[in-house]
Amino acid sequence: MKSVAVEQGLTPVKEYLQQQGCQVVDMTGERQQPGVCAVVITGSDKNIMGIQTVVNNVPVISADGLSPEDVYQRVKEYIH
Fold this sequence. Notes:
This protein has helices at residues 11-19, 48-55, 68-79, and strands at residues 3-6, 23-26, 36-41, 60-62. It is of the alpha/beta class. The protein has one domain (3-79): 3-Layer(aba) Sandwich (Rossmann fold), CATH 3.40.50. A four-stranded parallel sheet has the order 2-1-3-4, with helices on both faces. Helix 1 crosses helix 3 (68-79). The longest helix is centred in the C-terminal third of the chain and has 12 residues, at 68-79. The chain is globular and about 25 Å long. It starts with a strand and ends with a helix.
């Protein structure tokens, strides 16, 4: 299964995704790790464009206002 990169500070989301069988990696913000199918960000940083340039055509999911379950549903859309 492809990995999901999760921004620091989203521990409940990270733990829920792992419980659902997702391979979760920490988002470093420097270079995209191979095999990552989506990136989950806190949404508190309004400069999403800067993040998207790092991600290179990988969907960016803002966790702002979403439960861990909601984030997982969005991630599933990109995994399948």
